[in-house]
Specification:
By secondary structure, the protein is an alpha/beta fold. The protein folds into three domains: 143 residues, Rossmann fold; 89 residues, no CATH class; 85 residues, no CATH class. Helices cover 51% and strands 9% of the residues.
């Protein structure tokens, strides 16, 4: 599996596995997940410890089987917590117990066993280690245990890396930057959606609201999780609940990040190309720095209206429209952005 396929290669996910490795030294822990936990935790742990020459054993208890009995059967020792804790030959062995679908009584039994096991193993330089993987929070009344909690630890950099890994190599700007920004600011910790928008068609990048709305009912929504330590609702849940304002706020934020520098580059390019036709406007000039380079799109349209062909002037008007929409915290209309992109391709290439 390469990094393109494996979200466990992302920085936050690798750090999570490293934390799990640290608790192995004391005999194990409970590992809890969350909505943004990448899929395949058990397989990721297996790969991580395979590389460290551990023998990883998945424990599948039989119905009604006690924890000590399940472990004894797997490792061919006496079904006793003290024996299991003191068996030095198991020092390079790691037992994984997946409690995803375990009933509450069985989970509590494993919790109590792990509390006792870690007390018996305390102070030893080595021995068997146990990991209890569970989506639920362990009940405090059953005793204190080391816990490695995912707790929504994905960072924005993780999503940006994931988007870049899934983006086509030949995508031009500003669509490449826009795809990444939409992945981070709209999709957030939903890595599946972030990967999809990163490789999406041009029309989907121009109309991200339509793209997201089209996935409601087709892709499962999720509960809220964190990104960069801040709570962030699932974008599909927002769409399903008609929270249009928040979805558009996220899209606007992504467009602002991607399109504003692109607009500024074209503003300067238009000024450079038509500098002989331009003059400083008194009403907009900075008294300290009266410079043609400070002309905004509105001024450019006014001054170039009589000098340029209709198509180029309409393109500059398009850029002005996008600049105005973004400045007023509005999402850019797909058809306007499309016209601006096509105009940029034509007129900047011809210049």
């Amino acid at each position: 599996m390469n990094s393109y396929e494996d979200p466990w290669e992302l920085p936050s996910a690798r750090a999570f596995l490293s934390e799990i490795e640290e608790v192995i030294g004391v005999g194990g822990a409970i590992v809890t997940g969350g909505p943004s936990l990448p899929p395949g935790l058990e397989a990721a742990i297996q790969r991580h410890f395979d590389g460290r020459r551990f023998v990883v054993e998945r424990i599948d208890p039989l119905p009604g089987q006690l924890p000590a009995e399940a472990l004894a059967r797997a490792f061919n020792v006496t079904a006793d917590a003290a024996v299991l804790a003191q068996e030095t030959r198991l020092g390079d062995h790691l037992a994984i117990i997946v409690a995803q679908e375990m009933e509450a009584a069985a989970f509590n039994g494993w919790h109590l066993f792990l509390v006792r096991f870690l007390k018996l193993r305390a102070g030893q330089s080595g021995g068997l280690s146990l990991l209890l993987l569970t989506p639920r929070q362990p009940p405090a009344e059953l005793g204190s245990l080391p816990v490695v909690a995912w707790n929504g630890r994905l960072r924005r950099i993780d999503v940006a890396i994931w988007a870049e890994l899934h983006a086509p190599l030949d995508r031009s700007e500003p669509l490449a930057t826009l795809a990444e920004a939409l992945a981070v600011d709209v999709c957030g910790w939903r890595l599946d959606l972030a990967a999809e928008i990163a490789r999406a068609r041009r029309q989907d990048l121009l109309d991200p609201f339509g793209w997201l709305s089209g996935r409601v009912g087709q892709v499962e929504a999720s509960t809220e999780c964190k990104l960069n330590g801040q709570g962030m609702a699932c974008p599909l849940a927002l769409c399903a609940q008609d929270h249009t304002e928040e979805v558009n706020r996220r899209i606007w934020k992504a467009q602002l990040k991607a399109l504003f520098p692109w607009l500024e580059a074209h503003r300067q390019s238009v000024i450079d190309r038509h500098r002989k036709l331009l003059q400083i406007e008194r009403r907009t000039a900075d008294p300290d720095q009266p410079d043609i380079a400070a002309l905004e799109f509105g001024g450019l349209v006014r001054q170039l209206r009589r000098h340029l062909g209709r198509e180029e002037l309409e393109w500059i008007e398009c850029l002005a429209m996008i600049r105005n929409e973004l400045a007023h915290r509005k999402v850019v209309k797909p058809n306007v952005l499309d016209r601006a992109l096509r105009g940029a391709q034509r007129f900047e290439t011809d210049s």
